[in-house]
């Protein structure tokens, strides 16, 4: 299967039909589980406009032998929270604000990945780490594993931490008992002092 890869830095340089062709890859016959609106061209374009001004970027677009878009790989230089570039580290644009789909591919995903990976070095010659997040059950993982192995690269998997939550007791008194003894003593002492000047009323607000 003969394929061709083109690289773009500016969104204004993209062919007119690319946004629609990109979104067609997200149809029910091509999409990985969990991929949503954050995988669309419009979402990625918004990320680039809002957060990647002045950052080194490259949008790799792979075409199949019929000229159709077979996959895209939007990359940028990784940066710290303070904006300092991390040498050798690059990431997909979606790592900025969503981190759910690092790969947008069509049917020939393994061949497409090989071609895209082969062209990364031309845009980022000093890269040694590519960061991306795939949703659970992604159909891209197996093709990615094989394509990476073909280029003598390695995948380091780092499971994401789940969103934290607080399991609160059923009522305020039960919650209050879980606090440190010194704190409860201080609250009790303050409450008694207030009671010397009048009635102390405690109100619990559960809604705004």
If you had to describe this structure to a student in words, what would you say it looks like?
The protein has 208 residues and is α+β, with helices and mostly antiparallel strands. Helices cover 30% and strands 17% of the residues. It has seven helices and six strands. Strands 1, 2, 3, 4, 5 and 6 form a six-stranded mixed sheet that branches.
Our measurement of the CA-to-CA distance between the termini, rounded to an integer number of angstroms, reads 60 Å
Radius of gyration, Cα only, in angstroms? 25 Å
- Uncertain runs: none
The helix content is 25-40%
If you average the pLDDT, what whole number results?
83
Detail the topology: elements first, then pairings.
Elements: E1 4-8, H1 18-24, H2 41-51, E2 57-63, E3 69-79, E4 85-92, E5 104-105, H3 109-118, H4 120-123, E6 129-131, H5 141-150, H6 172-176, H7 181-195
Parallel strand pairs: 4-6
Antiparallel strand pairs: 1-2, 2-3, 3-4, 3-5
Helix pairs in contact: 3-5
Question: Notable features of this structure?
Answer:
single chain; 208 residues; alpha+beta; six-stranded mixed β-sheet; 7 helices; 6 strands
Question: Would you summarize the structure shown here?
Answer:
With about 210 residues, the protein is of the alpha+beta class. The model has no long low-confidence stretch (mean pLDDT about 85). The protein has seven helices and six strands; from the N terminus they run βααββββααβααα.
């Amino acid at each position: 299967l003969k394929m061709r890869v083109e690289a773009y830095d500016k969104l204004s340089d993209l062919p007119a039909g690319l946004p629609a062709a990109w979104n067609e890859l997200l149809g029910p016959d091509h999409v990985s589980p969990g991929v949503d609106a954050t995988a669309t061209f419009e979402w990625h374009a918004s990320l680039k406009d809002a957060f990647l001004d002045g950052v080194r970027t490259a949008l790799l677009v792979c075409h199949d032998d019929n000229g159709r878009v077979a996959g895209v790989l939007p990359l940028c230089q990784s940066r710290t929270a303070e904006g300092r570039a991390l040498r050798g580290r690059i990431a997909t644009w979606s790592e900025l604000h969503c981190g759910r789909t690092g790969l947008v591919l069509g049917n020939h995903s393994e061949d497409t990945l090989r071609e895209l990976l082969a062209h990364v070095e031309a845009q980022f010659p000093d890269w040694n780490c590519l960061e991306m997040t795939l949703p659970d059950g992604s159909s891209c993982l197996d093709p990615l594993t094989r394509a990476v192995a073909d280029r003598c690269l390695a995948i380091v998997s780092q499971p994401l931490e789940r969103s934290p939550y607080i399991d609160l007791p059923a009522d305020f008194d039960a919650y209050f008992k879980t606090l440190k003894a010194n704190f409860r003593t201080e609250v009790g002492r303050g409450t008694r002092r207030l009671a010397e000047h009048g009635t102390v009323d405690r109100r619990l607000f559960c809604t705004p």
